Amino acid sequence: MERDTPDRRLSLAQQLVLDLSRRILAGELPAGSKLPTEQAFTEARGVSRTVVREAMSRLQAEGLVETRRGIGTFVVDTTRPGNFQDSQGEKGTAHDAVARIELRLSLEVEGAALAAQRATPSQLLALRKALDQANAVGPLHKDSNRIEFEFHLQIALCTGNSFFIDAMTHVGNTQIEGVQPTVDPQQRMRQAREREQICAALERGDAEVARAAMRLHLTNCLHSAQCTAQATAG
Predict the structure, then answer these.
(1) What is the CATH number of domain 6-75?
(2) The pLDDT value given to residue 195
(3) Domain 88-233, what fold?
(4) Pairing assessment for the beta strands 72-75 and 65-68 based on DSSP bridges
(5) Furthest-apart CA atoms within the chain: distance in Å
(6) Distance in angstroms (rounded) separating the CA atoms of residues 81 and 87
(7) Looking at the DSSP assignment, which residues form a beta bridge with residue 74?
(8) Helices marked H in the chain — which ranges?
(9) Confidence at residue 140, expressed as pLDDT on a 0 to 100 scale
């Protein structure tokens, strides 16, 4: 049996956090629904209780679940006042989209470089799968925001840094529900090429190219968001 080291526990816990976060934000686990018990998670996922407890702790910190003593863990209403993603006001505006990408530029460029240096073979396989799904999804698909952002969440996971992963999970909470920049078919093709360049750099372990490719991708996304914000303001 593979040894359950601290690094492995962190990775498994983060995978569980990302999976449950996506399901909650996609509405698969609606507000008020009760999560499986700790024992059920360990049996279904093949992970230790320590992994499950770490994941639940992080989900609580994200404001996505709450534990009621003696009853269980429940999904909370992510739209209620006081949550991280609602704390800045005017959530979901076109100007929010610009601010969000500005934050991502300061975070994901270096994150991509770290990911190129640290990604494991299994993480690269998950990244490639996320890339294929992001490139295949159409703009009218109800889960397009979530599926496209999954690629970026996988890169955060490749860093092995819990702070990067937590920060990107926060960003994802607002990204999935927020206003998206208007993107035409030509721009979507360009974004697909840019994602491929990022993924290829990570697969080669080339930190400098990964950093540059992510900067280009997010800079172009920022330009699209700024154009959308200007259009809505006019």
Answers:
(1) 1.10.10.10
(2) 95
(3) Four Helix Bundle (Hemerythrin (Met), subunit A) (1.20.120)
(4) antiparallel
(5) 61
(6) 7
(7) 34, 66
(8) 6-25, 38-45, 49-61, 94-118, 121-136, 144-158, 162-177, 185-204, 207-233
(9) 59
